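quick one, two chains, predict together pls
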Amino acid sequence: MSVLFVVLPLALLLVAVAVWAYIWSARGGQFDDLDTPAVRMLHDDEE
Amino acid sequence: MPAPQLGTPCSHCGLAVPPALLASEGNPSFCCSGCATAHEILRTNGLAQYYAFRERRLTAVRSSGRSFEEFDHPAFAELYVQAEGEGRATTELYLEGVHCASCVWLVERVPLLMPGVVRAELDVRRALARVEWDPRRLPLSQVARTLDQLGYTPHPFRGVARDAMRRHEDRAMLARIGVAGAIAGNVMLPALALYSGEFAGMEAAYTGFFRWVSLALTIPALLFPGRVFFTGAMAALRTRRLHMDLPIALALGAGFVRGAINTIADTGPIYFDGVTILIFLLLTGRFLQQRGQRAAVDAAELLYSLAPDSARVLEADGIERTLPASALLPGMLVRVRAGESFAADGTLVEGETSVNAALLTGESRPVSARIGDVVHAGTLNVAAPVTMRVEEAGTTSRLARLLRQVAESSARRAPVVAYADRLAGWFVATVLVLAAVTFVLWVGRDSAAAWDHAIALLIVTCPCALALATPLAVTVAIGRAARAGIYIKGGDALEQLAHAGHLVLDKTGTVTEGQTTVVTWQGDDAARALVLALEAGSSHPIAEGFRRAWPAGAVLAAESVTHIVGGGIVGRVAGRDVVVGSPRFVALHAPGGAGTVVRGLDASLTPVLVAVDGVVVARAGLGDRIREDAAAALASLRQRGWRTTLLSGDDPAVAASVGAALGFEATEAIGGATPEEKLARVTAWRAAGGPVVMVGDGVNDAAAIAAAHVGIGVLGGAEACLASADAYLTAPGLEPLVRLVTGAERTMRVIRRNMAWALTYNLIGVALAMTGMISPLIAAVMMPISSLTVVLGSWLGRTFEPVAGAAPSGVVPMATLPARAAA
């Protein structure tokens, strides 16, 4: 038995977590407006 | 964007301050009261750091000064407001004049200005502000008034519900693409191991493991992101039409089933890498295309937002009430103050004024209107308060009909898409026939091989590269164009502009500067000071023209000034009687000077005579100056084979004179065209064949712009016109038009090169598959390489080059182009 049979499913599990995080952020509207936040972050340092 | 001029800059917007408004040393000076109000709001609320932004609006604050009472009307709430929890409500407002970073900062600080507002978020690209507020603490009209005072006149946005639906759709599509990409990448890894195993040898235990892992990964790719192709294919089957989804679904399904059988049997190719990459690339191409096609829908929505939305109705008890324009009924009496727009079509019943119909007809000179005259919604009351009886309101007014035509023309314009669909049909049929032929050719010899070869053909010919070729090249070109100051909404426009066709130009504001100024002055220069003194307090366009031409300002003071509507202005300056006005009017007031009236003034100019103590001393020609680069740009376009036509709503004599100066043929300089006539002419030219490109700046051009194959809005145009245009030029003049055409030609060259590559790959793939030469290895190499060539070809192609003086990168594009595909 090679270590491959353990590591590959583990790697795929990590991928699954990343994909889940991506879907979560896409559904949460993180990618709705890609222009405004880039501008907004420039201004948030005061207040 | 006007550069800051010499002299004292306005403390708010940076434009030159007229000498008359200069404040004492050490105090801020403002170019207008709008700027002063905005500055005061910012200062008293501790938002003065707005002025630290390098990249700010360099235009004077032009607030409409309306009360926005109708925003609190129950009918308004029903249409535009959504209730939220805890008694809060949200609405979306379309803001005029949003275009840069400082706008985002300012609009999103509104909750600091008004405690009842919970949140304000601005989507800078679409100029939509989402406002959440507490109606019990604060009426929406107050929020609207503050936004207006800051220079962002708000309009209710109707597309709220559709917007939410579309956002949902977009998110689902992005999730699909992400999943498909992750799976494709992870299937590629065992696939690479398997391919190298074929050469170097691999133990059967590993091969089997990798094949099963690939199978396990492919199943979710088909079930989640890949499902759209199967539902699309089913729909195509049900409607009995050949659709791109059909061979795709066939290839995906057959490839997967064959691969799964081979995995279980542990022999033969598995196809899983091809299947997953296909899903990913096709979804990406589709997403890019979809974003480009939304422009038309958005345009129509914005147009409705821009129609005048309130009116002051005179009720039977003599009290004025502000009502939403949609609530106006024929027979109602409406008061319209000077400087306001008419909200409905109707007849004047009281008062006498002059009306600027430039928005509707393009006529640059105001016309006088008396009791009994008909006025139209959207036109501007220039001179005096009047009362009007409503005849046609809401959806039946001339403006509403015009806007509806714009929306209809926008929706109708899709010949390119239709063509692509037909082409796709042929492609689909060919691929299916070829796959069947391959199967029949091989089935006699070896039925297993027949299946494999047919499936290999389906996968290898799959239109990844073809599907990416156009949207990718167009998206990259649109992104580059935006950096060069040209905003393009869709790929169709680029396609049409690449071939010489019929270029139709509006006059006012497009080939001319669109502002009245003194073009000729004959006579006594000393009289200028007298004229300025007399015109100093007048808001008449002629007076503004004098002030624009001689910005030094008045040094003398005038007494007993009288305006005569439709005639001129009379008064005493420095002890002398001064009369300024039309030749007829001046002849009436200064009978002694009639002899000095000189004929032969250019027809495009309005003659204005100046008489001092009853003697005519000077004659000014006021008009609209032709843009400096117009002649060169037109010459360059004509050289490329474009037919040019000047189509103006202005007086035919004016159009002819401007046309002659710019080298238009006499029959190609058309004046006196109403918006309806412009639309009819453009439609007729369209029907006569060849692409028709309409360039304009006003609402009067909007319908024609939408009806043309390509509509182009120029800098400073009305928002309705920009909304219906396919492309928008942010630099003044016509030179950017030449750059747009050049860029379009280059983009089409890149697309053609992409298509050629993709087709070559497909032909080679078909030949290899039909002769049974294709091994899974060759298929796996050919697929990504063909797509990669297309990606590189689109990326490296020279299309639009950045120009000096264009918007610096980082400036967010004008929001009037809602669905600009992201680069």
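Residues 93 and 156 of chain B are 5 Å apart (CA to CA).
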